[in-house]
Request: fold
Amino acid sequence: MAVEISWRSRQGRRTDANQDYCGVALRPDSVLCVVLDGSTARQQSGELVRLIARDLTDWFILAKKGMAADDVINQLHEIHKVRSKELHWASASYLVALIEHERPTHIFYAGDCLVGRFDAKAPIEWLIRPHTLANAIGTISLDKIASSTLRNKLTRSFRAKEFMAPDMATITDVGKETFVVATDGFWAELKHDDQCRFLEGEAIQEKESQDDCSALKIRILGSDNESQVSTSTAGNLYVVESD
Reply:
């Protein structure tokens, strides 16, 4: 199988360094992508997201064929056992996409990274909802979550105190569609037109309170194609490919 992947990321004004990170692992039969958003309020979160991305993608390349959903969750737990001892105060949101040839795509997520179907002619169809206090006790629209003062209070994440298993979702019909995995600086702070421009690498107007803004665009290609990965910000992207 083959995919076309592009990673776009821009540092915001809330931290001294960009704390969004992406990892991509390419195997002939499958692809694993992880997008992470380190907490702006917790020390060492930028280092945590870098380590999780590398730990998970390196494991995926070396793992046996025929990956199951439980394998991904168990590995996240193993990573937590190690990294939580090293980075006591760090935390992060994350979303993992396991894409396999002619099989449903599995999504694992905790926090406020989202995945959606992309069409430049219409708003992104977001397929899940974030884990925030804004929507903790009821179903509300994503627009209302984005504008809520409780949006940045997470009910689930990768945090040192305890391992919180991710929620799961399945995309059964991926075909040759295009998907976007994004941090909240993208889905909550950019309008549709700016989201499209950002994904194409164009400049957009910055806000004084702008969070780190990142998005991974994934296009499923036919089996006769070769996978391609592009980025304008290589500093927070880790790509590994099997021999």
Q: What stands out?
A: The CA atoms of residues 68 and 106 lie 9 Å apart.
